[in-house]
Model the fold of this input.
Amino acid sequence: MAVLIISLLSGWAKAAVLYEVVNLDTLVGATKGTVGTINQAGQIVGWAVPASGTLDHAMFWNNNAGPESDIGNVDGSYAYGINAVGQIVGLALTGSAGFWTNAASSPKVLTVPSGTATSLALKINDAGQIVGVASFPGYPNHAAYWTNNSSMAVDLGTLGVITNGSEANAINHGGEIVGYAYANKPNPQPEPHRAAYWASPGSAPSDLGTLGGPTATATAINDSGEIVGYADTTTNTSAAYWTSGSSSAIVLGAVDCTNTAALALNNLGQIVGFAYTSYRAGPSACIWMNHQQLAQDLNGLIPTNSGWVLNDATAINGLGEIGGAGLFNGQPHAFALIPIALNITPIGGEFSLSFPTAVGVKYRLQSCTNLIAPVWNTVVTNILGWGGVTNFAAGPTAVREQFYRLTIGN
Done:
């Protein structure tokens, strides 16, 4: 669901710094949802506790609007990654990496060498390449790679001696992989692991370095090779950014925060994660619009009195849609954030909207009076996307509601 929201105040067009918040836990009684990945079509995977159970199940949410689809149907199943064509990876059974062809399919267990005790698939790119972690025979957990969902898992190796542990957290469309590896101690050990980078599935990992402290983890890489994660400084843990697999780590800026972490980024360089602040107990979901800007608390960018406290942002797609977990009226739930307009320009008595679109996708313009309990009315249909910024102009008669959004649909 590609969406922008525009606020029209005093009869004239003005941008409102707001996201619409969607509660993804829409099954009756479902709770404790967490988002793993959101793809370009707005399809989201993660996990939540279903109404009839007490343990997590892998979940799928379609176009940010629900309802949830329980794709795991097994206690202790998790969905971590989804690509552009809807293929999903995660944990299908206890201890076994899983693959779903789509949300309507049953999971299958990914192939691992004989003697492998456990495996986990964390991300899948649009080419169908999969990364994660497996306890290969004779070694601790090592970063794992599957060429496709029918191939055997390959051990990606680690830093230092072969008995050191490692994990692959993400893979981009070019096959670059990031994660972490233990430099001196086997997994599991709390210290010291380093952010690791594999230039390709066949290459040895390299140490991305830290921010002056002993440990670092790389959590995500985009198609330009930008990498984010978190690393120790001499005093705390900070969200970290690497321009490429051969660059040094830099601190992602934040004000009035103790510890921060970057968990995901998109191809625009927008980064999301969480921060511990002095003004809120527990973590706050945050966004860096790029690596040169300071973190913004996403709780300050949603409607007041919404009932939400956004704790962490774990996914972001190329349209700026964000997924994560937080508290709604004090109860844990998964959320999706739908972003504001990128630009709005008054033209005489009219207003003009500018928004990004995907090639060949049809959109509809909708309006409502509030974002707390929105009732969206369709204003214009069949707006055809072309892959760039589309402009839409409307006369004063269209200015009858306070908020506008663009959604996928005829």
